[in-house]
Structure formats: C-alpha cells, structure tokens
C-alpha cells in the first residue's frame, strides 16, 4: 500500500507541475514539451505526405497557401515564426488537419465543400487552433494519467476473484472513455472552433461563414452517432455555439475591414475541373 501511495503522490506532483493554460484561459494538463510536439508533428507530416496523394496542382496549392498565409500573419509570434507548410491531398475526404510545428493538410473534398475562401478559412483556423491550444499534447498526457489510474486500480483489485476484477476493470475503462476522454475531445473541438473563429475574423475572413460551413457539413452528413459517444460535438451543437460566438468576434473583422486589407484568395473552379 505504501508503494501505491508513493505512486499516487508522485503522479500528483507531476500533474501539478504540468498544469498550464490554453489560449481561451482553460486550465490544461500537458506533460509534453513544445519541441517534442513539434518533432512529432514534423515526422507525422512527412509520413502522411508519403502515404497520401499530394497534388502539385498550382491553383489548388496557391488557394490553400493564400488562406494559410492570411491566418498565420495574425498568429501570436510564437506560432507565427513556425515554418508553416501546407499540403493539398487529392482525395474526396472532407477533412483538414494541422500538426504541431506548423504543418497542415487539406483535402480536395473539404475544398469542394467549402463554398468560398471564408468557409475554408474557418476550417483552417479551427485546425490551427488545435495547435495553439496544444490539444495533441494534452490528449497524450490525459491518456498517460488514465492509463496510470487504471493500472493502480488493477493493483488495488488484485485480491478480488478474476471474473469480478475483469468486470470492474471493464466498467472503469468504459467510464473513463465515455465520462472523461470523449467529453475531453469534444471540449477540444469546441475550443478550436472558438479560436479559429477569432483567427479568421482577425485575418479578414467573414465570421458568419463558419456557421454556413457547418450547415453544409450537416447537410453532407458530417456528423454521425449520438454526441455522447462521439469525439466531436454534433453539427447542430457546433452551429449553435458558433452562432453564439460570432457577435463577439465581429469587431475584429470590422477593424480589419476598416484597414482595407482583406484577403482575396481565389477559389479554383471544381466544376470545370470535373468536367474536363
């Protein structure tokens, strides 16, 4: 029992030392250093490019790069100084992602769904929001804590019959997944939505288009299954929450409009491409 107490005390000390704050002011737990996350991001980016179908189409790449550059220009210096790279994947998947260190991927399926530069900026701002909030490191840290807690629970249950111990461990595992990890992931998605909305407004993209994007996503079947068992909020929840946040970021957009420096990223004609 003294060993278990020692493990718990050590884990608590590490957890306290690893506490930090996200860009929205939320308290976070992150054991991973920035350099560790950036190197993992670089390695993952290279692997995903090697395994995927990266296009060399100049129009597609220019469009993605234009939006990326506009958003990166308004990032805090810590993230603005990354050597941001964006790869366009020739796939119908409706997805995009950003990795620690400044690496982004966007799929042509998402570029087709997003009707204009503003909607695609909502997606890319959201993904950059994940990087700024270091959600990847936080999720890995949470997995470490939960794994340690489950190991500790299994030690404490060693005197129970095997079948009873297996049932209790299964219940604890399910409880950790549904009660901790899935809501935690949904919180990350909502936080990235909020950060992304602020970024797109600061960069001069129309914030209301983020709501329209998610209406398009819902129409395209972008959400599936009950929200309780999902890592992402339901589209209806995102549409409602984004709509609630839009008024608070409109002053940022209006300020950018008054400066007369709005982005003008030319969306390629996908209809023409498919017809040729």
What kind of oligomer do you see? single chain
Helix content range of the residues, please?
A: 55-70%
Query: Mean of the pLDDT scores?
Result: 76
Rounded to the nearest angstrom, the distance between the terminal CA atoms is: 72 Å
Using the alpha-carbon principal axes, give the shape. Answer: globular
Describe this structure in words.
Helix 3 crosses helix 6, helix 7 packs antiparallel against helix 8 (162-203) and helix 8 packs parallel to helix 10. The chain has one domain. It is built from eleven helices and five strands. Strands 3-5-4 form a three-stranded mixed sheet. The protein has a two-stranded antiparallel sheet with strand order 1-2. It has helices at 2-17, 34-51, 58-72, 77-80, 108-113, 117-132, 135-156, 162-203, 208-219, 235-259, 270-275, and strands spanning 19-21, 27-29, 85-89, 96-99, 103-107. It is mainly alpha-helical.
């Amino acid at each position: 029992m003294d060993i278990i107490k020692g493990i718990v005390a050590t884990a608590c000390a590490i957890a306290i030392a690893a506490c930090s704050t996200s860009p929205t002011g939320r308290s976070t737990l992150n054991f991973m250093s920035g350099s560790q996350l950036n190197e993992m991001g670089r390695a993952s980016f290279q692997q995903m490019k090697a395994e995927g179908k990266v296009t060399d189409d100049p129009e597609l790449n220019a469009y993605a790069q234009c939006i990326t550059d506009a958003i990166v220009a308004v990032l805090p210096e810590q993230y603005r100084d990354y050597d941001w790279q964006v790869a366009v994947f020739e796939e119908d998947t409706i997805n995009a992602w950003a990795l620690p260190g400044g690496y982004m991927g966007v799929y042509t399926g998402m570029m087709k769904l997003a009707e204009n530069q503003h909607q695609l900026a909502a997606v890319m701002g959201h993904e950059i929001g994940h990087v700024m909030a270091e959600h990847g490191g936080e999720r890995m840290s949470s997995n470490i804590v939960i794994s340690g807690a489950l190991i500790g629970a299994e030690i404490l249950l060693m005197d129970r019959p095997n079948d009873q111990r297996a049932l209790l461990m299964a219940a604890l595992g399910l409880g950790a997944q549904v009660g901790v990890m899935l809501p935690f992931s949904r919180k990350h998605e909502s936080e990235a939505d909020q950060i992304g909305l602020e970024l797109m407004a600061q960069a001069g993209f129309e914030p209301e288009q983020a709501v329209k994007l998610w209406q398009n996503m819902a129409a395209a079947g972008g959400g599936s299954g009950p929200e309780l068992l999902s890592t992402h909020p339901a589209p209806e929840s995102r549409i409602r929450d984004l709509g609630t946040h839009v008024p608070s970021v409109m002053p940022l957009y209006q300020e950018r409009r008054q400066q007369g420096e709005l982005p003008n990223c030319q969306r390629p004609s996908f209809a023409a491409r498919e017809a040729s």
